[in-house]
Design a protein that fits this description.
Blueprint: H1 3-6, E1 21-23, E2 30-33, E3 44-48, H2 52-67
Antiparallel strand pairs: 1-2, 2-3
Length: about 80
């Protein structure tokens, strides 16, 4: 089954790697792992960037990579990036 047949991976709260990242709501320098459909105070802090523009670029790049991830199997990767 190809990527186009199975569609993009769906967010799965049991696999943190599949959850989208977001930029903080106040200053815009913080990066969070979003645990629900909308931004909330329950989202997990990942880190802080030097500028809001850098945080936005990191989040956009990470989410773009994950949600266009092409895999020919039905398996979801289980390792966090960098492991």
């Amino acid at each position: 089954m190809t990527f186009y047949q199975q569609g993009p991976p769906r967010p799965n709260p049991e696999v943190p790697m599949t959850l989208p990242w977001r930029v903080g709501r106040t200053v815009g320098r913080t990066i969070y792992r979003q645990v629900g459909p909308d931004a909330s105070d329950e989202d997990v802090l990942i880190g802080v960037m030097d500028t809001p523009q850098l945080a936005y670029e990191v989040v956009t790049a990470r989410n773009s990579f994950w949600f266009t991830y092409r895999e020919d199997t039905d398996e979801t990767p289980t390792a966090e990036p960098g492991e």
